[in-house]
Amino acid sequence: MTTHTACAAIAVTLLSMLTANTAAAQPTQGAMLRKGETLAIPTGVPMRLVVTGSTVRRQLAVIVHDAAQPPTMRMEEGTRPPLVACR
Predict the structure, then answer these.
(1) Is the pTM of this model over 0.70?
(2) Exposed (0-12), middle (13-18) or buried (19+): which is 63, by Cβ within 10 Å?
(3) Quick one: pLDDT at residue 75?
């Protein structure tokens, strides 16, 4: 299983799973995305993506943000808010 460093979305993020599964942990919910499912994450919501399973993962991500701002902001361990585990 691979875990990506948590990021705070400074934009609206839309994830759509084309193959395999991905877990998206957020402060108020954990969402398990399966093939064919889509999740919209509003601006300012921290999240952590966790790859699940052993197959190759393919997803489509659309990030709509203010061009004057970076699309994400990395958060170091210990400084990010607690995130709900995906089930």
Answers:
(1) no
(2) middle
(3) 66
